Amino acid sequence: MTNAPEPLVPLNVELRGFSGFMLDVDRLLASELVALGTPEECWAAMMLWCRAWKQSPPGSLPNNDRVLAAFSCSGARWPKVREMAMRGFVLCSDGRFYHRVLADEVLRAWGKRNSYKADQERLRKWRDDRKRSGVNNPQWEALRAKVFKRDGYRCTQCESADDLHCDHVVPLADGGESDMSNLMTLCRSCHSRKTAISDMPSKSRRNGDGNGDEMHFNNSSEGISERVYSTGTGTGTKKEKKEPPLGPPSPKSRAKARTAIDPNWQPDAAGLQFANDRGVRTERELPRFRDYHAAKGNLMADWSAAWRTWCGNAGKFSPSRLNSARPGDDGAVEPTPTNPTGRQTTLMTGFV
């Protein structure tokens, strides 16, 4: 069998504990097996797929017609259904039949199993580190409370007060200790970000011989954690840039409350000058401004800014109407015999 392909699934793959595989219904319904096969042939094929999933290596079948007849549940009728039931299987160099589609599913499931095992190993190591450092006992809870109190019950990075974690500046896996000088308060988001960066494949933060950029956290001389950005150069040297140490959280300024307009509101001197510079007549536009916002029920944090916006729009869209108004004019359009309603007629614009 020198011309036979290599096995589609490595010999070390095993899927004990995986009860089944995902069946691509669309692909199955569009296959030649369903289009050309009899119900008996389709059933025999599906029985072989299920048996192949449980074989070693998974996704394969032995090259033995008596075994295949038993696996397919076809018995003495196996010679009649064999051709259609074995569609998709190829005989490989190890003397076994492998189904191409099923082999892809096997390798995908094997990858998931390996990922799960790696996660379990990381969890085991984390638990061992906690047990070794004594962070599962009441002393840890007391120490954790002291760290939160020292940091003002806020994240030392973003000042959030929600979902706080007590984090080791130098991880336990790197030789860090569970004491006040090596602990800081982080929120869930900052804690997850720090952990993700610490788990990057590059280990340049330990010995400076990796590649790529990495961020980790150190203790400053004042006992306050600070960020350190380090760049591995590949030669064992690093360039570092330190931000100023974080101080105690500063009180956040509150947004100015929004209020309704006062019926007697008046613009200040700067607002009057702003309107005058744009040719806006304050005695006419100010009542309109107040009535409009009062009718709409608008709330503003800065009515002077709203007035400037009003004046800017008035001067932009109605310069001729505003600048040509006569003293005492209230801005209304006088009715004329040809325009008895007082509305501006636009349909005849351009006709003479």
Produce a short descriptive summary:
This protein is about 40% helix and about 10% strand. It is α+β, with helices and mostly antiparallel strands and about 350 residues long.
Q: Would you mind describing this structure in some detail?
A:
The protein has 352 residues and is of the alpha+beta class. It folds into three domains: 1-132, no CATH class; 134-201 and 210-242, His-Me finger endonuclease fold, CATH 3.40.1800; 269-323, no CATH class. It is built from 13 helices and eight strands. It has helices spanning 25-29, 32-36, 39-53, 65-71, 78-85, 100-133, 138-150, 188-198, 204-207, 269-277, 282-296, 303-317, 319-323; strands spanning 60-62, 89-91, 96-99, 164-168, 183-187, 211-219, 225-233, 238-242. The strands form three sheets. A three-stranded antiparallel beta sheet has the order 1-3-2. The chain has a three-stranded antiparallel beta sheet with strand order 6-7-8. The chain is elongated, with a radius of gyration of 39 Å. The protein starts with 24 loop residues before the first helix and ends in a 29-residue tail after the last helix. Residues 202-247 and 319-346 have low confidence and may be disordered.
Order of helices and strands: HHHEHHEEHHEEHHEEEHHHH
Parts with pLDDT < 50 across at least 5 consecutive residues: 202-247, 319-346
**Strand element count:** 8
Terminus-to-terminus distance: 100 Å
Range of strand content: 5-15%
